[in-house]
Amino acid sequence: MGTGGIAGAFAEDLQLTESGVVAAVGSRSAGSAERFADKLSIPTRHSSYEALANDPDVDVVYVATPHPMHHANARLALEAGKPVLVEKPFTMNADEARDLVELARAKHLFLMEAMWTRFLPHIRHVRELLPRLGDIVTVAADHGQWFAEDPAFRLFAPELGGGALLDLGIYPVSFASMVLGAPERVAAMATPAFTGVDAQMSMLFGYASGAQAVLTCTLSAVSPTTASIVGTEARIEIDGPFYAPASFTFIPREGERSRFEYVDEGRGLRHQADDVALRLAAGETESPLMPLAETVSIMTTMDEVLAATRT
């Protein structure tokens, strides 16, 4: 559902796996659907989202429309009885996220945020190593990219859910949530872009354990896009971009460091598709790697970040 850049990348990555195929594409215009389908050899193309949601040959819908449309588009698919994978950020705010989760649970349908980083091999390995770090003291992550200042470009357009936090900052925030859970305290500072959306955001999260997360995102420059998890016994340093297929180093407080190299085929988006297929085959309605309660918690944290910049 949608024919933008992330939809194309996901469709191409699906060709690298045997867990599923793109059976159909839906767009708000017939021309866009036709061009997308022709490029990727997709057999069925629909000129409306409603037609895609009601297509009996579609087993699960991937929502890849602009951020402000995620809630309505995912709701459309769920009401049509389809399991749904929703591109991140899941919704524009926590209220919308809770609404989708309640609907999916009421209808006993699978629903998941497409935070594809969670499903990458190196992140799975990192999670396995967390107990060896001791008490977590600090999590740090950044995500910065440079974009030409174009008011029509979606990241600068308020009406398209623009801004660094929702599009780029979601990765560091989700990473911190994966390691430390929901923060008790949130502090944030934002620098506006020429259109008024946040061009840069710096965040500091505090946790009941005493741990802290230091997170940044920007639309104005290419940052290292690295991440680290620092514990009392060891730390993990993930190469940039940490949110895509990457290698990392495990560094104990005493002893030899270990290097773990990962090379992946494609963009890395196919791994979340494999997990969706696995859950659907098992009759499950959510994934333990990206639980719905955590998605709602992350959107709540994002709301708190934005609120903190207005005080």
UniProtKB/TrEMBL annotation:
Signal peptide: none annotated. Transmembrane segments: none annotated. InterPro entries: Gfo/Idh/MocA-like_OxRdtase_N, Gfo/Idh/MocA_domain, GFO_IDH_MocA-like_dom, NAD(P)-bd_dom_sf. SUPFAM superfamilies: Glyceraldehyde-3-phosphate dehydrogenase-like, C-terminal domain (SSF55347), NAD(P)-binding Rossmann-fold domains (SSF51735). Keywords: Oxidoreductase. It comes from the Bacteria. Residues 126-237 form the GFO/IDH/MocA-like oxidoreductase domain. Residues 2-112 form the Gfo/Idh/MocA-like oxidoreductase N-terminal domain. Belongs to the Gfo/Idh/MocA family. This is Oxidoreductase. The lineage of its organism: Bacteria, Bacillati, Actinomycetota, Actinomycetes, Pseudonocardiales.
